[in-house]
Amino acid sequence: MASPKVWFITGTSSGFGRSMTEYALNQGDTVVATLRKPQVLSDLAARYSADKLLVLKVDVTKQEDIDEAFARTREAFGRLDVVFNNAGYGLFTEIEGTPDDKARELFETNFWGATNVSRAAVKFFREVNEPGKGGIILQVSSIAGFHALPGLSYYAATKHALEGFSDGLARELPASWNINICIIEPGAFHTNGTKGAMVLPHHPAYADESFPTSRLRRVAEGAVFEGDAEKFVRTVYEVVQGGKIPKRLPMGLDALEALNLRIESLKATVDETKGWSEDLRRADGGVQLLL
Asked: What is the largest CA-CA distance in the chain?
């Protein structure tokens, strides 16, 4: 039986963050639960002792909050096993209907917040944990990280960026540090966190009911998505306990279907465009960059 772990979870006020916090605690693990409004977790704080649950006020767009949270984690527990990098939100409207400030705020949370937490986690795993013990970073991305939907373009862009960052980070880390990066790519799951998504008005040019964003608005309004959030966190927990951490973890049959469509599209692109690349090498040779 695996020994209890210490989890650092962001965005614990609702959605996957709240569900993962509750599940890990129920399994006997210790959780550092971070969120902007700690009072939201007052019910959990009343049920669990300080050696099991540490609730911290963290806005992931503020580096000082992140640094303080990891310092408090070190002070309280002296180690850390898993970071569930979950803080974020959705934004739905057409690209032309998205004010610049709203798009930039989305990136501050979904991309910069997640990447800055990742940097702090790597440093903690390397410098605070016992040498070679390492740790696990679970990056909560989305099906949109590889399959953008109309109306979710800026949200998809934040997840595309997070996936690119995570790919690069995983390649940079020496094997001896034993730090595993897992990019989790959920499909459509029903959580109370979906209520926090920002939905902006239609751009007038896209108001036609036959247009893609209009159709998606009709489908999504009041929808109860088929994915079960409790089954999601249970499965993620089982993956962590199993010890074999995949680089990517698509979650849900819809995510797998979208991934297969992406694979087929990329294969078709290779077949269609290969001829344009066959004679692009320098005549005097050179070095390939791919590692």
From this structure: 71
Residue 254 CA to residue 250 CA, distance in Å, equals 9
Dist. CA 151–CA 258, nearest whole Å: 17
Catalytic status, residue 141:
yes
Contacts of residues 38-42 at CB distance under 8 Å and 24 or more positions apart, as own/partner, are: 40/13, 40/14, 41/12, 41/13
Burial of 100 by CB count in 10 Å (0-12 exposed, 13-18 middle, 19+ buried)?
exposed
| The one catalytic residue among 13, 141, 153, 166 | 141
**What pLDDT, in 10s, does the model give residues 264-287?**
999 999 999 999 999 898 888 887
DSSP for residue 190:
E
* Catalytic residue from among 48, 155, 206, 237: 155
5 is catalytic: no
Catalytically annotated residue among 159, 166, 206, 237: 159
For residue 43, the tally of other CB atoms under 10 A from its CB is 9
What is the distance between the alpha carbons of residues 27 and 37, in angstroms, rounded to a whole number? 25
Side chain identity at residue 6, one-letter code: V
CATH superfamily of 6-277: NAD(P)-binding Rossmann-like Domain (3.40.50.720)
What tens digit of pLDDT does each residue of 58-97 get? 999 999 999 999 999 999 999 999 999 999 999 999 999 9
Is 265 catalytic? The answer is no
